[in-house]
Amino acid sequence: MLQAQLTIDPAHRVAPVRRRTFGTFVEHLGRCVYTGIYEPGHPTADEEGFRGDVLALTRELGVTTVRYPGGNFVSGYRWEDGVGPRERRPRRLDLAWHSTETNEIGVDEFVRWTRVAGLEPMMAVNLGTRGVQEAVDLLEYCNIPSGTALSDLRIANGAKEPHDIRMWCLGNEMDGPWQIGHKTAREYGRLAAETARAMRMVDPGLELVACGSSGSSMPTFGTWEATVLEETYDLVDHVSCHAYYEEKDGDLGGFLACANDMEHFISTVVSTADQVGARLGSRKKISLSFDEWNVWYMSRVQAAAPRQDWPVAPPLLEDHYHLADAVAFGSLLITLLRHSDRVAAACMAQLVNVIAPIMTEPGGRAWRQTTFHPFAQAARHARGDVVRVEPVCPTYETAEFGEVPVLHAVATQDEAGMTLFVVNRSTTEPLELALDAGPLGAGGGAVRIAEATTLTHEDVYARNTADDPDRVAPRPNTDHRSDPLRIVLPPVSWNVIRLSRA
Ligand code: AHR
User: Where do the record's region annotations for Disordered lie (predicted)?
Assistant: First the structure.
C-alpha cells in the first residue's frame, strides 16, 4: 500500500469558493437542446416542453451558471430566428455541426428554462459572421426593460421582464481555423473591443469575456491572449480558456494526470494577462472564464467520415464516460478550485447528451453518467474558502508530463468544518493517507472524519447505462480511523472527506 501525508492549514487560504466555478454549457448541438432539456410530449415535460427529469437532475447536479447558445454554433447564429411566433421561425443550416436548426428554442425559451432550473444565464454573441450591431441588438432585446423597438418586441413575445443577463461572451474560439469567421488575434481583438465598447454604452455594468485560446496546444497559445488583451484590456473582465482531455494510446496514467496541462494553461494565461496589464500600466487584473472544460474523445469525432445530410438534432458527441474519465474529470475540478483566486467562472461542457454528465433517451429515461458525481459532490460540499493543500506522496512517470504526484487534492473550509477533495491516480495501488488537520483542531479538541465517500470501481472502464444507472456511484468509505487520522483511498478513485471537530 502507498503511503502519503497531508496537512491542512487554513492559513493557506486561496480565495472564496466561487459559485460560478460550477457552471455548465447548453449549445444548439446534437441532442443537448432538443430531446435534452426540451422535448414536448415527453412524459415528464412541463407545459413549455421542458423535460422534468432533466430539470431534476440539473438541480441535483448543483450547476450555477449556464452558457448559451454556443460554442461553434454561435458563430453562424442569427438570434432573431429564435424569437417570436414559432410557426414563423425559419429552419436554417447549422454549418458548425452540419445539422438543421429548427429554432424552436431561442433566447426567450432558454432564459425561461434557466429561471425554472434556478440558473444564471451567460450569453454568447456571434462575432463570426456578425458584429457590433447584432450584439448590441441582442443586448437591447434582452436587458432593456421597455420603450425601444427591441425591448418592446421581447415584451410582445411574452417576456415582460428584462432577461437581465450579466455575463456575455464576445464570440467563441475565434483562434480556431474550424470556427466560422475565424480571425487573427489582431482582427478579433479589434472587433471584440469595438463590440465591448458599444455593449458597455448600453449597460456599463456587464461582465464581458474575450476569447482566449481553444487549448494549450494551439500554435497561437499565449501570443493570442497577449494580442487580444492589448486591444481589450480596459473593456473586458475575463479571458476565456477551453480545454478537453482524453485517454490516448492506452496511456491511463498520463490521462489521469491531464490536470497538469490545465495547471500550465491557467498559469500561462494569468502571467500573460498580468504582463499585458503591466505594460499598459494598469492595476486591473483580468480573471479567467474557463468556459469549456471536460473529458472529450475528440479524436473519435475527427476520425469519423464527414456528414452528407443535414439532420435535426442528431446524436453527436455522445461520449459514455467510465470510472477513469470521472477521476480525471474530478482532478480537473480540483485544479479549477485550486485557482479560485483567478478563475472566476467555469463551464463544464456540456449539460445533457453532448459530452455530458446527464444522458437521455428520446421519449424515455434520463440517467447520471460517471462524471455527474464528482461535479455534484464538489458543487454541494465546496463551501466557504478554498484552502491549498500539497500532499507529500509518491510520484509516477508519465510520457507527457514527466513525474507527477500520485495524489491531487484541494480543501475547502466553512463554519461546519473542512472538506477534502482527493484523487488517487495510481492505477494499481491503494494509498493510506495520514491527515494532519492542524489548526482546525486547535482549541476545539480532536478532528474526526465525519463522512467519507469514494467513487471507484474494480473495472476502471465501468460505465453507467440506462439499465444500470448506479454501477459507478459514490459509496461510503469506512476504511478510516482516528488518532492519528488515516484513510485508505483505492486506486483510480475520487474521494470526498468531510472533517469536523470530534
Ligand atoms: O463543446 C463542444 C465544442 O467544443 C464547442 O462548440 C466548441 O466551442 C468547442 O470546440
Answer: 462-484
Ligand 1 atom closest to 176 (CA) = 10
In a domain, 38, yes or no: no
DSSP string, 169-232: EESS-TT-TTSTT---HHHHHHHHHHHHHHHHHH-TT-EEEE---S-TTSTTTTHHHHHHHHHH
Q: How do residues 374-410 score in pLDDT, each as one tens digit?
A: 999 999 999 999 999 999 999 999 999 999 999 999 9
**Does one domain contain both 172 and 56?**
yes
The verdict on 121 and 269 lying in the same domain is: yes
292 is catalytic: yes
Residue 451 annotated among the catalytic residues of the structure: no
Is the separation of the CB atoms in 225 and 239 below 8 Å? Answer: yes
How much of the chain, in percent, has pLDDT values that exceed 70?
Answer: 99
In a domain, 467, yes or no: yes
Which position among 173, 194, 207, 231 bears the catalytic label?
173
For 408-439, how does the pLDDT look when each residue is reduced to its tens digit (9 = 90+)?
A: 999 999 988 899 999 999 999 999 999 998 76
Answer for the pair 449, 498: CB distance below 8 angstroms, yes or no.
Answer: yes
444, pLDDT greater than 60: no
Q: How far is the CA of 405 from the centre of ligand 1 (A)?
A: 30
Q: How far apart are CA 119 and CA 133, in angstroms?
A: 28
Q: Which helix (H) or strand (E) holds 5?
A: strand 2-7
What DSSP designation does 270 have?
H
Same domain, 149 and 197: yes
Whether residue 397 sits in one domain with residue 311: no
The SS3 call for residue 47 is: coil
CA of 244, closest atom in ligand 1: 4
Claim to verify: residue 408 and residue 356 sit in the same structural domain: no
Nearest CA to ligand 1 atom 2: 71
As for how many domains the chain has, the answer is: 2
What is residue 254's predicted lDDT score, i.e. its pLDDT?
98
| Nearest residue to 51 via CA among 14, 132, 105 | 105
- CATH no. for residue 393? 2.60.40.1180
Instruction: Mark residue 173 as left, alpha or beta (left: phi above 0; alpha: psi -120 to 50; beta: remaining).
Output: left
